[in-house]
């Protein structure tokens, strides 16, 4: 399906097809349609995310990394790591010339903030995605029954998800509900007065430069209802269980140290974590506030030259790794012979104590997980 038939460029097309031979896909489409009624509002959720994609000969761009870093530099660092992995493969294959070329480009990324590179005829790009959540009268949409959730309690990190290896290609057919959602998301821009002028200007420009789009596999986060609104409290995970595990780690390990909890509150947090583990529940009340595991939709916009890269207004506070190291050395941060002042000494003492307590609580949680696995 497209707006104007065959005269519309391919990157603007949305192909919607019934999938009667794919029961799982059909169920997911039905659930997506039901979500439109239960959670009718689509809101921006957590800002842009970035990943690395490679253009492929068969069409489209294949994602070659996790797609979750909130700043472009994090994805550039991942691209440098990808190039070094290619260099090691070339070394193992006895091809030093190819190895040197991959390493040369990896080192460029250590010093330069580059969003696209072609190495040995292979084109790589930092790709930008927007995040959205569905909202209804009861709050944000939780995981759907058809969302993959295969990991056991405590093993959410082992499920790597469906994003790495996903091909960004508008020609890939989609179900009716996903196709309609794509059309809705592609039309969204920041309303006047809701974002800085540069951010709004970039979102309006993207309607022209990258009018097409593809939905990535959904991910999940935990959100807390506080002061009359919902806000995410963690980075996204590939599965609902990954978000539950992140939440229980916060309750058992992070909060006791970072928030200096008293023994009574620490015990209550432990009981809440035990309940999440036992019930695999997607909503719980913590300190009187509702916390829910939330489904996050992610859209990559596409133009005539492929997926959208970072926008000028996207926050990009991190420096390339070599530049950052050089700057820190010039500031004396890496000077092992520098004498710490009294404030720095106290900060280091507190940090060391916190690190010891983190390790103790983490090992305690690890033993709990292992015991549960053996039971």
Task: Explain how this protein is built.
This protein is α+β, with helices and mostly antiparallel strands. Helices cover 42% and strands 21% of the residues. It is built from nine helices and twelve strands. Strands 1, 2, 3, 4, 5, 6, 7, 8, 9, 10, 11 and 12 form a twelve-stranded antiparallel beta sheet that branches. β10 and β11 form a beta hairpin. α2 packs antiparallel against α3, α6 runs antiparallel to α7 and α6 packs across α9. The chain is globular and about 65 Å long. The relative contact order is 0.16. The N terminus is likely disordered.
Please describe the topology of this protein.
Blueprint: H1 23-38, E1 41-44, E2 49-55, E3 61-63, H2 72-92, H3 96-111, E4 116-119, E5 122-136, E6 139-140, E7 167-168, H4 176-186, H5 197-209, E8 212-226, E9 229-232, H6 240-258, H7 263-279, E10 283-286, E11 289-303, E12 306-307, H8 321-330, H9 342-374
Antiparallel strand pairs: 1-5, 2-3, 2-5, 3-7, 4-5, 5-6, 5-11, 8-9, 8-11, 10-11, 11-12
Helix pairs in contact: 2-3, 6-7, 6-9
- N- to C-terminal distance: 52 Å
Q: Structural class of the helices, strands and pairings?
A: alpha+beta
- How large is the radius of gyration? 23 Å
Main beta-sheet annotation: 12 strands, antiparallel
Helix content: 40-55%
| Number of DSSP strand runs | 12
Q: What's the order of the H and E elements? A: HEEEHHEEEEHHEEHHEEEHH
Q: Mean pLDDT, nearest integer?
A: 89
Strand share of the residues?
15-25%
- Give the uncertain stretches in residue-range form: 1-5
DSSP helix count?
Answer: 9
Shape: globular
